[in-house]
Amino acid sequence: GKNFCGHSNRVFSVKFHPDDPNIVLSGGWDNTLQVWDLRTDSAVRDLYGPHICGDAIDIKGDTIVTGSWQANNQLQTWDLKSCELIENIPWVNPMGTESSMLYAAQFSKDPEARFIAAGGGGTNEARLFNRQTLQCLGSIGIGKRGVYSMDFSPINGDLAIAAGDGSIHFLDTNSLAK
Known about the structure:
1 helix
């Protein structure tokens, strides 16, 4: 197989582009997201900012979502072609409580990718956002441990959330989308 080097520290997430088998995204501790083209021997683009510490990269069309282990601008969307920031998704913590540091982020698997889900440590919660309005539709507090992984069902939109205490939580996104 091919061996690519483009990061200066640990890589925590890789994701194939769902519509282009030659494009792969990677992110990790070096605060970069690398865009790879498997037909070349190196990264073809990169963007600076996200501190990826888990499965916190996803892509739908030309939009990338990243979840970062940082106190501010944890959840962001980026343009694949320009590698420019599209927007920061507001992660407001009530009463100035501890920030959420994200380990996981992804788009829902419906054709429009109507939702973005993210979760992590700090406040130990997962949140579901409307992708168009950026409104937080709901959250699940996990307790004393963080959220380390999540996945949307490709069939019915349910969200499975994995927590550091060994528990799995399920969220019916259809009940929140009304």
